[in-house]
Amino acid sequence: MYDYQNELRRVILMIDSKSFYASVEAVRLKLNPLKAILVVMSTEKNTGSGLVLAASPMAKKLFGISNVTRARDVPIHDKRLIIEPPKMNLYIQVNQKINRIFQQFTAEEDIQPYSIDESLLDVTDSWQLFGATPYEVARKIQLAVKKETGIYLTVGIGDNPLLAKLALDLEAKRNHSLIAEWHYEDVPDKLWPVTQLDDVWSIGHRTAEKLNQKHIHSMYDIAHTNPYRLKQEMGVMGAQLFAFSWGIDRAVVRHKYKAKEKSYGNSQVLPRDYFIQAEIEVVIREIAEQVAARLRAHHKATTVISLGIGFSFAAKEDASRGGFGRSMKIDATNANQQLTKHAIQLFREEWQHESIRHISIACSNLVDDSAEQLDMFDTQFINLKKQKLDSTVDEIRKRYGFTSVVKLSSKVKGATAIERAGLVGGHAGGNAYE
């Protein structure tokens, strides 16, 4: 048995807002989130015929609907089922309200929002102020959030972030209280019996298949495999899996909280497979200009541009890869023309005529735009004229909306900028140019 004497023992809560989008919609309609039969379903073009983003517990139970169910498989004619479009701005507001409630129980630097519906809290230094046990504190947090927002929380409690996450995913969601508590000593009884390896956080379907091929079929098997063999055959992932199988995670929430380097990016799931170069490049230009506008709005310029391309399902099979990503260092800029030029260059250097379904562009290694360097092939006069034009268009769009000024190219076949202007996170709800 592993000696946990030298491992950190903290009080970590991993908190999940149960069926978050669906619960927010149920509360908005003055319904009980656990009893409402409701789905949040996107029917925008960029999800084909539509995709379920969230389903209430009762919708899952009655109809077997999951968060990846296609619209065509949803019983839309059943009068019991409520179907709501996504309202991303509302979900963001409720998420922010919930995280403010968490700050009543621990310091802000000890809270790490993990996603829009999950947060990690380190209450080691504060839990005794609010209850006799961490379990009691978790219950108080559940009640506080339920009272203020109507949302039900599921809570995993652990000695470290990993154990809290495992407690959440593998036990709490099945408990009547929606709370579970795991300690190092629980690993043999609670973690090792797991045989559905991709149920375990950080183990994807492909990794599970690789492990099965090595005759590793449970977390017990991982824990009792030679760690040097795992590392040799699977690299860093192998070493990490061995540590996880023993419940070891030395991450500290407060350290994770340090802000990542700021970057700006946008992406687009295309409404169909794109395989014509001109159509693909229209969308690349649109996204690059969208990112450029965000840089200018925040008075930043970028020195690194990255392009990500995701292939269609058919192309993934033929190309034996899911897509590609490329980055390049550039002179500091936030100009439309420069960023579109570099993005198109990255695309042309790597693309081999595969059909495309997803495009993303990100700009990082930012500097203040006052530090922007002029391209040696541009005269200062021409460069300033371009910047002034970009800024003028930004101001008009800020005042009257994105569609008040659009390029002719955004009207051609394949363009998506006009439709995308009203989306948040790829779904209805706001202005993605901010």
UniProtKB/TrEMBL annotation:
<comment type="similarity">
    <text>Belongs to the DNA polymerase type-Y family.</text>
</comment>
<keyword id="KW-0548">Nucleotidyltransferase</keyword>
<keyword id="KW-0235">DNA replication</keyword>
<dbReference type="Pfam" id="PF00817">
    <property type="entry name" value="IMS"/>
</dbReference>
<dbReference type="InterPro" id="IPR024728">
    <property type="entry name" value="PolY_HhH_motif"/>
</dbReference>
<dbReference type="InterPro" id="IPR050116">
    <property type="entry name" value="DNA_polymerase-Y"/>
</dbReference>
<dbReference type="GO" id="GO:0003684">
    <property type="term" value="F:damaged DNA binding"/>
</dbReference>
<dbReference type="InterPro" id="IPR043128">
    <property type="entry name" value="Rev_trsase/Diguanyl_cyclase"/>
</dbReference>
<protein>
    <submittedName>
        <fullName>ImpB mucB samB family protein</fullName>
    </submittedName>
</protein>
<dbReference type="InterPro" id="IPR043502">
    <property type="entry name" value="DNA/RNA_pol_sf"/>
</dbReference>
<keyword id="KW-0515">Mutator protein</keyword>
<dbReference type="Pfam" id="PF11798">
    <property type="entry name" value="IMS_HHH"/>
</dbReference>
<dbReference type="InterPro" id="IPR017961">
    <property type="entry name" value="DNA_pol_Y-fam_little_finger"/>
</dbReference>
<dbReference type="GO" id="GO:0042276">
    <property type="term" value="P:error-prone translesion synthesis"/>
</dbReference>
<dbReference type="Pfam" id="PF11799">
    <property type="entry name" value="IMS_C"/>
</dbReference>
<dbReference type="GO" id="GO:0006281">
    <property type="term" value="P:DNA repair"/>
</dbReference>
<dbReference type="InterPro" id="IPR001126">
    <property type="entry name" value="UmuC"/>
</dbReference>
<keyword id="KW-0239">DNA-directed DNA polymerase</keyword>
<dbReference type="GO" id="GO:0003887">
    <property type="term" value="F:DNA-directed DNA polymerase activity"/>
</dbReference>
<dbReference type="GO" id="GO:0009432">
    <property type="term" value="P:SOS response"/>
</dbReference>
<dbReference type="GO" id="GO:0006260">
    <property type="term" value="P:DNA replication"/>
</dbReference>
<dbReference type="InterPro" id="IPR036775">
    <property type="entry name" value="DNA_pol_Y-fam_lit_finger_sf"/>
</dbReference>
<keyword id="KW-0808">Transferase</keyword>
<dbReference type="GO" id="GO:0005829">
    <property type="term" value="C:cytosol"/>
</dbReference>
<feature type="domain" description="UmuC">
    <location>
        <begin position="12"/>
        <end position="204"/>
    </location>
</feature>
